[in-house]
Amino acid sequence: MPSRTWIHRAAPILLLCAGMEGAAAQARPAAVPPPAVFTLPAGDIASSRPPQLSLDTFLALVRSENPALLADRYLVDMARADLRTASTLPNPAISHGRGAGERQTAIEQPIPLFGQRGMRMEGARRGIDATAANVEALAAGTLRDAAGAFVALLAAQERADRWSEAQGALAEAAAIVEGQVSAGARSRYDLTRIRVETANLAMRLAQAEAAEAAAASEVAAFVGAPDWRPRAVGSLRPAADSGRFDSRWQVARERLPSVRAALAAERLAETLIEVERREALPTPSVGVGRLHDADGRHTLIGVSVEIPLFDRRQGPIERARAQADESRQRRRAVVADAEATLRRSVDQFQRLQRLTDRFGEEGLSQLPELGRMARDAYQLGRGSILELIDAILSGTEKQVAYTELQEQVLRAEVEVRSASGAFASTGVD
Q1: Strand partners, 52
Q2: In Å, how far are 147, 198, 336, 356 from 423, measured between CA atoms?
């Protein structure tokens, strides 16, 4: 992805041219599972930022309100100003002189007869295209980072939900223990132990909620709203088509912002060669004057032109050629790197997806039954307090671990979609 320094380097050139199902619960109660994160329809952006939002709505907000992206757009306006400079004709020059018995006034106008002005304008247009392409590449990078922040918030919410559910389960278990102790079936050790675990679990929930608040703050920072604390709406399930390379690359190699920016830079550099060649041609100046002397008044008409005998802009032309060669080679490097990045991203996504699916099938399927068995065994006097507590906490820890795997999968999907050009204004689905 091009860095922001590229545009600043290009400015002189322009002048030269002239989750788990049900993860998105609100206030911790169960809710209908939403569709996958990347398939949510974009909603209307309200005048006040919504308390809950999907990924598409969030990315639309970022594109319209991110302070850095808003600043970058002025770079295109600066490039358009260069076009106006390139299209402006040179100013005429007026001279006046007087001597012994005579007085002369003349006006002279340079006239670019050999297409210099047209080539300058063409170079400026190419400069506008190059700047716009780089601004779009910068925007795509910001949107990729914003999507990653959204995924982090979604996972943080899921972890907080899991610990909140564990707190509720532990409270139910504590009620059972209190009943057993009151009936004399269990010792007060069991009641003390579960109260200690309840306090410990409250701390872990508080930590999870603090992490959720920090993730929400990072999301808000992408739209320049530090006092906004949104809640992400979506599922931790990835889209079904994220693991396909061939179909994605066919489209991505034409639409990736980094590739489009490199191609625009190459076209600009090629145009600069012709600009310098035209600048090497002399620009004649036509002058009209009025002479007053002892013989009367006379009208003078003349033409002056520079003779390109020594300076034929050999240096600038060679520099423009070298810059074109460099831009051509850099475009090839960008395309090769983009293909490698997409392949690597797809491979990483597929590996993480397989790992997550296997963990979900093998590590989570027995958790509800394990918890039920631990409660029943304790109530029947066949299980210990440690087994009851472990069934609740160990199950929650596995669910949190599964959430972290899902987060890694979604982050990998963000990279796949970024490498596919999905965060460009003309991106793929």
Answers
A1: 231
A2: 9, 44, 19, 25
Provide the pLDDT for residue 48.
59
* pLDDT, tens only, 372-426: 888 888 888 888 888 888 888 988 999 999 999 999 999 999 999 999 998 987 5
Identify which of 254, 311, 330 has the alpha carbon closest to the alpha carbon of residue 10. Answer: 330
Q: What is the pLDDT of residues 326-359, one digit of tens each?
A: 999 999 999 999 999 999 999 999 999 999 999 8
Angle between helices 246-255 and 257-280 (to 10 degrees): 30
Sign of CA dihedral 346, 348, 350, 352: negative
Count of CA atoms in the C-beta half-sphere (13 A) of 110: 15
Task: Classify residue 154 as exposed, middle or buried by CB count within 10 Å of its CB (0-12, 13-18, 19+).
Answer: buried
- State how far the Cα of 215 lies from the Cα of 120, in Å rounded to an integer: 49
- The three-state secondary structure class of 374 is helix
Cα gap 78→69, rounded to integer Å: 15
Of 417 and 4, the structure prediction assigns the larger pLDDT to 417
CA gap 120, 272 in Å, rounded: 9
What is the Cα–Cα distance from 185 to 372, expressed in whole angstroms? Answer: 20
Q: How far apart are CA 108 and CA 91, in angstroms?
A: 9
- CB contact at 8 A, 96 and 105: yes
3-state secondary structure of 68: helix
How many whole angstroms separate alpha carbon 177 and alpha carbon 169? 12
Beta bridge partners of residue 293, listed in sequence order? 296
Render pLDDT for 114-146 as a digit per residue (tens, 0 to 9).
999 999 999 999 999 999 999 999 999 999 999
Q: Which domains does the chain have, with CATH numbers?
A: 36-90+115-279+319-419 (1.20.1600.10)
CA atoms within 13 A on the CB side of 279: 20
Assess contact for 332 and 242: CB atoms under 8 A. Answer: no
Angstrom distance (rounded) from CA 246 to CA 428: 13
Structure tokens at 292: 């007053």
Instruction: Outline where DSSP puts E strands in 24-176.
Output: 52-53, 93-99, 102-110
Give the helix/strand (H/E) hosting 338.
helix 314-363
CA 360 and chain centroid, separation: 31
> Measuring CA to CA, how many Å separate 90 from each of 102, 112, 285, 286, 295?
30, 9, 10, 12, 35
Between the CA of residue 382 and those of 125, 178, 369, 373, what are the distances in Å?
82, 17, 16, 10
Per-residue pLDDT at 40: 38
